[in-house]
Specification:
With 473 residues, the chain is of the alpha/beta class. The protein is 26% helix and 35% strand. The chain has one domain. The longest helix is centred in the last third of the chain and has 17 residues.
């Protein structure tokens, strides 16, 4: 078994008893319930934030409080969030460990069960493992560090590398972009800061793993990745949490900057438990001849609202979003993409496939904008949905705005349902009903799964199989 396989197998285990585990809370610092200026001051004091960060946070808190809850979609689910019953900062007070042996036992056991150290030894160029609000372990291989690559948590980035960090922080995604980007800006903690120097091609992926262990908690990591001219990077993240009776909030902000000729590939495999509200803002800025590629797999959570985007600022820049979403009973996967063309000869590609199981609901929500003054832009948008049961739901909202007559765009959408005849045919050849359903679903996403790294494609199919168990009959 390769390490990439172990990566997603470990996530797959979250659907069973192996992954549904937690340890008793042992926090030295707890900001308590509710959000106020007192909460902000508490976080700033514990983290010893510079004055500009404290001011940034308090301004963001005002923006968050002034913005109403979004009402134009998913409003019924969002209105159940009680921000006064969330804890916004929990930490043991320990600095991130550079040696795996120094990681606290319970945290070490958590990530060992998820396969993190094995992945690092065999496959990854660096790992950051976040436990609740702070990174517990952060390490980059010496050969990569010698190339000038920085891979630290966001707190270290803003303090120790402010000359690189600060000019781009909050510039790709402004605080006021939406209510939840403002919330993150007020209480952010953890997340990755990566800088790749000009011309450096990082041969092996860097990975971050985000684990929620505590109940009634909000995780608000902030990631900033800057890849300089002609450099290349692949970054992977995994996300899990145990099952709680109460709601858990995850609201991250991810900013990517690809300078001239740079390439960034950002791979996410999330498998949150069904009590998590996953409300994430992700966007990249691609300069001339740069490429930003999001590869996204969304499984689990009560509600996911995530629309990775690319602003193609430089000529011949390219943006791409490839996504798979699966919504089971009690879940709503509201996912999509945003592609903003801001220079001539830019190209965007969006390919989305969603599966709705039981009484699950999936929604594709996309935005493509090509202004009139540009020339030679291209966009391809494909969004396909599969319904497994008669009670499952799917919606597609592709907003494609093209002005001018010197561009090329194409859009394709389809909705299909697994037929009883197809299932009956496979059952007659010895397959169980669940196995027949899994085969149908995997056939539906097969062409898209090829875009994932090979080992990921194998385990994504396994994730589908696990989701289909108990979904029929």
């Amino acid at each position: 078994m390769t390490t990439e396989t172990a990566t997603v197998q470990s996530i797959a285990r979250e659907r069973g008893e192996i992954g549904n585990f937690r340890f008793p809370e042992k926090h030295k610092y707890d900001a308590g319930f509710g959000l106020s200026e007192r909460t902000i001051d508490y976080i700033c004091d514990v983290k010893n934030d510079p004055d500009w960060v404290r001011a940034f946070r308090k301004k963001a808190l005002g923006v968050f409080e002034s913005k109403p809850m979004p009402t134009h979609w998913a409003s019924d689910d969002l209105n159940t969030i009680d921000f006064d019953k969330i804890r916004y900062y929990l930490s043991s007070g320990d600095l991130p460990k550079r040696s795996w042996d120094d990681v606290p036992d319970e945290v070490k056991q958590t990530f060992e069960r998820l396969g993190i150290p094995e992945q690092e030894r065999k496959f990854l160029a660096g790992v950051e493992a976040q436990y609740d609000s702070e990174a517990a372990y952060s390490n980059v291989k010496e050969a990569v560090a010698e190339q000038g690559v920085l891979f630290v948590n966001s707190t270290e980035g803003l303090k120790e590398h402010a000359d690189i960090f600060r000019p781009w922080f909050g510039k790709v995604i402004p605080t006021g972009d939406n209510k939840f980007s403002a919330l993150n800006s007020a209480v952010f903690s953890g997340g990755s800061f990566i800088y790749v120097p000009p011309g450096v091609k990082v041969k092996h992926p860097l990975q971050a793993y985000f684990r929620i262990n505590s109940e009634q908690f909000g995780q608000f990591e902030r990631t900033l990745i800057i890849v300089d001219e002609g450099a290349e990077l692949t970054y992977m993240e995994g996300c899990t949490a145990p099952k709680f009776e109460t709601s858990t909030l995850h609201s991250a902000v991810v900013e990517l900057v690809a300078m001239k000729g740079a390439k960034i590939q950002y791979i996410t495999v999330q498998n949150w438990s069904a009590n998590v509200f996953n409300l994430v803002t992700k966007r990249g800025l691609a300069h001339e001849d740069a490429e930003i590629r999001w590869i996204d797999c969304n499984i689990g959570s009560r509600l996911t609202m995530k629309y990775p985007g690319v602003i193609m600022k430089g000529r011949r820049a390219r943006g791409e979003v490839i996504s798979i979403a699966l919504a089971n009973t009690g879940q709503h996967q509201d996912t999509g993409a945003k592609m903003i063309h801001a220079a001539d000869e830019t190209t965007s590609n969006v390919v989305s496939k969603s599966i709705s199981v039981g009484q699950g609901r999936s929604t594709y929500r996309g935005q493509v904008l090509i202004p009139k003054h540009l020339k030679g832009c291209k966009n391809n948008t494909e969004c396909d949905a599969l319904l497994i049961n008669s009670n499952s739901k799917t919606d597609t909202y592709p907003a494609i705005t093209v002005r001018g007559n010197q561009h090329s765009t194409q859009h394709e959408a389809s909705v299909s349902q697994v037929s009883e005849e197809q299932i009956f045919y496979m059952q007659q050849r010895g397959l169980s009903e669940a196995a027949a359903m899994s085969l149908s679903v995997n056939g539906f996403i097969n062409d898209l799964v090829r875009e994932f790294p090979m080992e990921y494609s194998v385990e994504l199919k396994r994730l589908i199989d696990l989701e289909m168990e108990g979904s029929v009959g």
